[in-house]
Amino acid sequence: MNFFKSKEQKAAEAKLAVRRGIQDLKKCDRSLGKKKEEMLRHAQMAKQQGISQQYQVAVNGLKMIMAHQKRAQAMILQLQLTESLRDLTSMGTGFVSLLGRVGKEVSQIAASANFAKNQLAFEQGMMAAETAMGQLEDFLEDAGMSFGELTEDDMDAEIERMVDASGAMQQDEMDAEIDERIEALEKKRDGLKE
Predict the structure, then answer these.
(1) Computed from CA positions of residues 134, 136, 139, 143, in that sequence, does the dihedral angle turn out positive or negative?
(2) pTM exceeds cut of 0.90
(3) Which of 2, 3, 69, 121 could make an S-S bridge to 32, C-beta 3.0–4.6 Å?
(4) pLDDT per residue over 68-108, tens digit each?
(5) What CA–CA distance (Å, rounded) separates 166 from 192?
(6) Which CATH class name applies to 7-112?
(7) How far apart are CA 117 and CA 61, in angstroms?
(8) What is the Cα–Cα distance from 55 to 177, expressed in whole angstroms?
């Protein structure tokens, strides 16, 4: 005998008990149906033979059987509805539990994202890159490969030309996209007017 049962074991036993109860009630309903047919035959024979007292007993028996059969059918329906409601409640509870677990996981993920630590690592990486670029420039100067031929003003002018050319190209692309959107909106507006 197991005194300590898990929730799943208890739920399975309860479900089995409900199903067993439904099966027993259905068996009772079938038995009452057979008794009803038998009592109906007795009432028909008593009426054919003109025995009013036996006819009345058969009719009363028939009423009693029909009342029991209606109760059995009502109990079957009630148990089936209860079982369905329990299943729905179980699904709802499972869904809520799942949402709770997902929420905890999201919370753990957010807690593990240490923004200050990541920002510090990013800044250290940028400083290391600047240091590496400075060392590369020093190396190139020492190796005689400096960019001394280009003056600071020449480099600034070249950069300015590249920025202007790139900016103009981006501006042209943005203008074309804006024109396309305006045209599409005008077509929609015209379509609505019609």
Answers:
(1) negative
(2) no
(3) 69
(4) 999 989 888 888 888 888 888 877 777 778 878 877 877 77
(5) 39
(6) mainly alpha
(7) 86
(8) 95
